[in-house]
Design brief:
Distance between the termini: 36 Å
Number of helices: 16
Oligomer: single chain
Strand content: under 5%
Number of strands: 0
Length: 338
C-alpha cells in the first residue's frame, strides 16, 4: 500500500506542478480575494499582532505548523514578473502555503486510490474514477487556506479505521486540525455506533466527542480566558457576531443568489446525490442516512457565509466519494452492456 501511495504521490506531484505555480502566482498577485493564512508565518517570525490571522483560524494548528516548517526547511522558490512589490518574507510565506496545499492535493489523490483499492477492496476502474472525481471536487475547496490539508487528514483517519490505536490517536488530535472534520467524523461515528449499533465504532465516537470538547475548551481559553478574542470580535457587524441575526438569511441565499447557487447549491447537490441515488435505486438503503453529514455542514454557513457553504460540504469528500465512484462505474457498465 505504501509503495503504491509514494509511487502515485511522486507521479502526481511531478505531473500536476502547474497547479502549484498557478496557485502561487494567484496568491502573490491577489488575483482572487482569499484569507491570508500565510500571514501567520510572519506572526510567528515577528510577534507582530497585525499578522495574526485570529481565532478560530489561528487555532487550526496542523496546517499552520506544516506551512511554517516548509518555510523554515525548504528553499524558497520565487516567481518572475510579479506585478506587486512584495516583502521577501511574505513571498516565501506564500510559497510555503501554496506548496503545502499542492502537496496536500497530490497526497490526497494518491491516498484515495490506495484507500479505495486496498482498504475498500474496490476494483481498479472504480479506484481510478475516485482520482478523477477528487480532481474535480477539490476545486470547490480553497487552494489558499487549510481546506486541502484538513480533508487529507480526514482521509488518513478513514484509511486507518481498521487500526484501533492509530485511529483513536488521529481522531483525538483532530481538535488541532480543523473543527469541520470533527463534525464529519462525529456524525459518521454516531451513525455507525449508535444508529447501526456497531460497537466497533463506539470508541471512535467517544473519542470524537472528547476531541470536540477539547477544541471548544481551547477556543474558550484563547478567546475569553486569555482575552485574545476572535476574528471580528470588536466589530458588531462582523460575520461571526451576526451569525444569529443574519445566519438564516445566509442559508436562504443559497437558493436565491447567483453566488449562492454556483458556490453552494451545486456542491450541495453533488455531495448529496450518491445518497439520493442509493435511496431511490438500491435495495440496501441504510447507508443513505449518511446524507445528514453534508446536510449538517450546510449550517456552518450561518457563521461562515453563503458563498462558503460549498467548501464546507466538500469536507465530507472522503465519506461519499468512493460511493459516487462506484455508482458511476455501475452506470457506465450498464450502458456498455446495453
Amino acid at each position: 500500500s505504501f509503495s503504491i501511495f509514494f509511487g502515485l504521490f511522486f507521479f502526481f506531484t511531478l505531473v500536476l506542478y502547474r497547479d502549484f505555480l498557478y496557485t502561487y502566482r494567484m496568491q502573490l498577485e491577489n488575483f482572487l480575494p482569499y484569507y491570508n493564512y500565510q500571514n501567520q508565518i510572519l506572526y510567528y517570525l515577528s510577534g507582530d499582532k497585525k499578522f495574526d490571522i485570529e481565532a478560530p483560524m489561528n487555532l487550526r494548528f496542523l496546517g499552520l505548523i506544516v506551512q511554517f516548517l516548509i518555510f523554515k526547511i525548504l528553499p524558497c522558490v520565487k516567481l518572475t514578473n510579479i506585478k506587486a512589490d512584495l516583502d521577501e518574507n511574505f513571498i516565501c510565506a506564500t510559497f510555503s502555503n501554496a506548496l503545502m496545499n499542492y502537496l496536500s492535493l497530490t497526497a490526497f489523490l494518491s491516498l484515495i486510490f490506495v484507500y479505495c483499492y486496498k482498504k475498500l477492496r474496490l476494483n481498479l476502474a472504480i479506484s481510478f474514477i475516485s482520482i478523477l472525481l477528487s480532481l474535480i471536487f477539490f476545486n470547490y475547496l480553497e487552494a489558499f487556506t487549510l481546506d486541502r490539508i484538513s480533508v487529507f487528514y480526514l482521509l488518513i483517519v478513514m484509511f486507518f479505521l481498521d487500526n484501533r490505536l492509530v485511529a483513536v490517536s488521529l481522531i483525538f488530535f483532530s481538535c488541532l486540525v480543523n473543527e469541520k472534520i470533527l463534525i464529519v467524523l462525529g456524525i459518521y461515528f454516531f451513525i455507525n455506533a449508535i444508529i447501526f449499533s456497531n460497537k466497533y465504532f463506539l470508541a471512535y465516537f467517544l473519542t470524537s466527542i472528547i476531541s470536540t470538547l477539547i477544541l471548544i475548551l481551547i477556543f474558550f481559553i484563547y478567546a475569553y480566558i486569555l482575552d485574545y478574542g476572535y476574528f471580528g470580535k470588536d466589530n458588531p457587524g462582523s460575520i461571526y457576531n451576526t451569525a444569529f441575526s443574519e445566519g438564516l438569511n445566509r442559508i436562504k441565499n443559497i437558493l436565491l443568489s447567483p453566488k449562492g447557487i454556483s458556490n453552494s447549491l451545486l456542491p450541495i447537490i453533488f455531495t448529496m446525490s450518491p445518497y439520493i441515488y442509493i435511496f431511490l435505486k438500491k435495495n440496501d438503503k441504510k447507508r443513505s442516512i449518511e446524507i445528514i453529514i453534508p446536510i449538517s455542514l450546510i449550517f456552518l454557513g450561518i457563521g461562515g457565509g453563503t458563498s462558503n457553504v460549498g467548501r464546507y460540504v466538500m469536507y465530507s469528500i472522503p465519506i461519499w466519494l468512493p460511493l459516487m465512484a462506484t455508482i458511476i462505474y455501475e452506470i457506465l457498465n450498464k450502458l456498455r452492456k446495453n
